[in-house]
Design a protein that fits this description.
mainly alpha; flat
């Protein structure tokens, strides 16, 4: 029996190891391709083992470093503020829905489920945010629209509260005179770090990767996010690569623009902060999802 268990464990480890390799290989190819000379990619295609190494793509991006650093600051600010506010709203909403005697629980549960199925559409949303809320060309246009709270996140947190925060502890805290906010801050949140870290990661990644709100509501270059800057840079490279005359007038790199490698370098720049942060929350990730997804 022991030998069978060991054999089973070895097979499972091999399968998971293979899955991990398959997952990591595209990321390795992305990094290698960003360091490959553009002419090599044009002649030989993408390869894990390039014939030579070049920093031309990063040099091209470095020429736009003033814009990129400003865009990074905007993105970091938006991600930090949006994640903090969005996570707070989600936790408070989920806590209210997790209480068995919360007045209006059915209505608020229906309200949040309704938003998962229906929305007003792009045009009414744009009119509301620009004409009535006056968010266009403000930092709030990158924070408020659609990303402050997600119904799926609220449901995960509510299920976690219902299944992993003992009702007896909440009742004991109230007997000791704690208010609802004190219960949340001193009892519920400390016991819910896995799901809070997981949902915080979800919200943070959504803010970091968001470029649609910038496309719709931001025309002031001072407020461009990193995703919007990199997307515009990629479009400019594609235009200059296709239009030789415009390239000669616009840049000294005409005819040698590293279009293919810049795409990879841009992806690496956008991905790098997430790769740095993820290991610090990874230990909570699996536990938070598995416990939070239990049906309450």
């Amino acid at each position: 029996m022991r030998a069978r268990e060991i054999k089973y464990q070895v097979i499972c480890n091999l399968i998971m190891g293979l899955a991990a390799v398959v997952t990591v290989l595209p990321l390795i190819l992305l990094a290698v391709s960003s360091l490959t000379p553009n002419q090599d990619i044009t002649l030989y295609g993408y390869s894990f083992f390039p014939k030579s190494i070049s920093l031309e793509a990063y040099a091209y991006i470095w020429n736009e470093r003033a814009q990129i650093f400003r865009a990074y600051f905007i993105t970091i600010l938006v991600t930090a503020v949006g994640t903090g506010i969005g996570l707070s709203i989600s936790v408070l909403y989920a806590y209210a829905l997790s209480r068995p005697h919360f007045p209006g629980k059915r209505f608020f549960s229906f309200f949040i489920l309704f938003t998962m199925l229906f929305n007003g559409g792009l045009v009414p949303t744009y009119i509301m945010y620009t004409r009535y809320l006056h968010l266009k060309n403000t930092i709030f246009a990158l924070i408020i629209p659609a990303l402050l709270m997600n119904a799926f996140n609220v449901i995960l947190i509510r299920s976690y509260f219902q299944n992993n925060v003992p009702q007896s502890l909440i009742e004991a805290a109230k007997i000791d005179g704690a208010s609802e906010f004190q219960v949340v801050r001193k009892v519920v949140v400390p016991m819910s770090k896995p799901i809070i870290a997981t949902i915080g990661l979800f919200i943070g990644v959504a803010y970091w990767n968001d470029w649609m709100n910038g496309l719709y509501y931001i025309t002031d270059e001072e407020l461009y996010s990193i995703q919007q800057i990199l997307n515009n840079m990629l479009k400019n490279i594609e235009y200059l690569s296709k239009n030789a005359t415009a390239a000669v007038k616009s840049t000294s790199l005409a005819g040698t623009l590293p279009a293919a490698t810049v795409r990879m370098a841009i992806a690496m720049i956008g991905l790098l902060p997430i790769l740095v942060i993820y290991p610090f929350v990874q230990k909570y990730f699996v536990k938070g999802i598995s416990l939070g997804a239990v049906k309450g």
